Amino acid sequence: MANTTIQARTKVGARQKKKADYNAISPLWNTLFNILIGLFAFSCVFPFLFVIIISLTDEQTLVLEGFNLFPSKFSFAAYEYIANSGKSLLTSFGVTVVITVVGTVLCLVLVTTYAYAVSRKGFEFRGFFSFLAFFTMLFSGGMVPGYIVMTQFLHLQNTLWSLILPLSLSAFSIIVMRTFFQTTIPDEIIESAKIDGAGDILTFIRIVLPVSLPGIATIGLFASLGYWNDWFNALLYYNNPERIPPLQFMLMQIEKNMDFLSKNAHNIGSYDAIANLPTETVRMAMVVLATLPIVMAYPFFQRYFVQGLTVGSVKG
To answer: Where's the ABC transmembrane type-1 domain (predicted)?
Structure first.
């Protein structure tokens, strides 16, 4: 009995000593981890801050001093050059906003309904449609068939739908949402809703969607980024100069025009004015204008984005 008591006291003492040692080391490790995470976060944000600084640098100062965190002279000439495009730039920004909002909503509707159907065990053809979505991730028809379908069969050239439909259904998003539904929505909840008299559509709207906000926000963020950064579809389907293209394509056109003027300055009048065009700073200003709206919107989706990734990755 005495030996047992001594052993118990020894174990308690060792446990207390181990806990005391952990408490003594823990603040140090917490400080080190916080420093490392802070440095990593700063390394992610720093390039964008550096781009903003360059876009606000005077072009001649940039040529003489190079890329500098603390330039000797600041200037808004790059943004003024872009703003001289007139109302077309503002209209192009509005076109991009419309495409992003409508396309994201359409993508969420198509992806969530498709993924929910193939995630339910009671759906007879879920294996076929899951394979169909996965197959398109490996093999696609290519650019030429897509162009023929969009222009010859659907006759959507030079319309906003030609920029919305190609990105409206993503096989990757379907796989992610299917996994999210399988790991988040128990079959018992669906069965209890059916017992209460709810149909499939009512169950999906009233029960499934409210608890699927993390996954929906994740897919919505992916779709928004895709639509906002898309310029290739405008290059394919927009050939009418009277139609205002989206922002990314408009910025690309401004950059091409500026490069053309710079390279052919000798053959054009007003050589000094053309030679002083803010070429490098305009490129950085374009990056800021194209990225800043998404950067500002991301914090609102961050919490749902992290939850969606972690929950959706539990089960493959």
So the answer is: 93-298
The contacts found for 190-199 with CB under 8 angstroms, 24 or more apart, are: 190/120
Q: Does one domain contain both 212 and 90?
A: yes
Confirm whether 63 is domain-assigned. no
Q: Torsions phi, psi of 223, nearest 5? A: -65, -40
Residues in the chain: 316
Give domain status of residue 214, yes or no: yes
Pair 84, 199 in one domain: yes
User: Is the same domain home to 170 and 25?
Assistant: no
8 A C-beta contact, residue 74 and residue 133: no
* CA dist list (Å): 233 to 98, 135, 209, 267: 15, 23, 31, 33
Classify residue 60: in a domain, yes or no.
no
> Region 284-297: what's the mean pLDDT?
79
Closest CA to 289 of 255, 260, 256, 259: 255
Does residue 164 belong to any structural domain of this protein?
yes
C-alpha span between 230 and 165 (Å, rounded): 12
Give the highest mean pLDDT range of 52-61, 130-139, 160-169, 278-287.
160-169
Residue type, 264: N
CB 88 within 8 A of CB 244: yes
| pLDDT reported for residue 238 | 85
pLDDT at 106 over 90: yes
> How far apart are the C-alpha atoms of 259 and 48, rounded to whole Å?
23
Model's pTM, two decimal places?
A: 0.74
Q: Check if the beta carbon of residue 268 is closer than 8 Å to that of residue 257.
A: no
196: helix, coil or strand? coil
Q: Which domain does 217 fall in, by range?
A: 77-312
